Amino acid sequence: MMRRRHLSAVSALAIAIASAASPTAAQLIVFDPNNYAQNVLTAARELQQINNQITSLQNQAQMLINQAKHLTSLPYSSLQQLDQSIQRTQQLLGQAQRIAYDIKQIDRAFLTTYAPASTNESNQVLIANAQTRWQNSVAGLQDALRIQATVVGNLDSHRKEMSALVGSSQGATGALQASQAGNQLLGLQAQQLADLTAAVAAQGRAQNLETAQRTTAQDQGREQLRRFLAPGRGYQPSIVRMFHQ
C-alpha cells in the first residue's frame, strides 16, 4: 500500500515538472518564416544602398581625377627657345649699318646724300655723296645676308621645337595640356613669321638703297655732264705729255 502511494506521488511530480517546463521549451523552438524573410530583404536593401553609395563615391573620385588631368600643366615649354630666336633677329635688325630702320634718319639722308644734285655743290661734295651712297648699298646688302643666314639657322631649331610640341600635344592627358601645346605651336608659327618679316624687310631695304643709289647717280651724272659741257667753265683742253716726252 505504501509502495503504491510512493509511485503515485512520483508520477504526479513528473507530470507537474513536465507541465511547468513545456511553455519554456515551446518558446525556444518557435521559428517565424515571414519575419525571417522580411529581415533578409531589409538587410539586402541596406547592402544595395551601401553598394550604390560606394559606386557613387568611386564615380566622384574618377571625376576629380579627370578634372585634375584637365588642369595639369604641359611639362614642356618652348617659350625660352622662341624668345631667344626672336631676340637674335631683333638684334640683327637693330645692328643695321648706316641708314637703319628709322624714319627720321631716312628723311635726313634723302634731304642730303640722296637729294638731287645742286648746282651750288662742288665736285668734291658730289663725289663724297656718291661714295657714301655706295657704302650704304653695300651695308644694306651685308645686313640682308646676315639676317637671311640667321633665319636659315633658325630652321633646324624650329624643326626640333615643332617635333617636341607635336609630341607633347599628342601625349596630352587633359584639356589644359592640349591647349598649351596648341598655343606654343601658334607661338612657333608667329616666330617663323617674324623671321620671314625680318628677312623681307632686310632684302627690301637693300634693294631700295641700291635703287636709290642708281637714281641719284643718274641725276648726279646729268649735273656733272652739264658742268663738263658748260661753255667757258667746262672742260678745258690742255697739253698732256706722255712717256716722259
Structural description of this entry:
The radius of gyration is 52 Å and the shape is rod-shaped. The chain is an all-alpha fold and 245 residues long. The protein has a domain at 80-229. It is 79% helix and 0% strand.
Taking the sheet with the most strands, its summary is: none
Derived structural class: mainly alpha
Q: Provide mean pLDDT, rounded.
A: 79
Calculate the terminal CA-CA distance, rounded to whole Å. Answer: 200 Å
Poorly predicted regions are none
Taken from the alpha-carbon principal axes, the silhouette is: rod-shaped
Give the fraction of residues assigned to helices. Answer: over 70%
Query: How many strand segments?
Result: 0
Topology pattern, helix = H, strand = E: HHHHHH
Q: Helix segment count? A: 6
- How much strand? under 5%
Q: Give the radius of gyration.
A: 52 Å
Explain briefly what this protein structure is:
The chain is mainly α. It has helices spanning 2-28, 33-70, 79-94, 103-111, 123-170, 175-229.
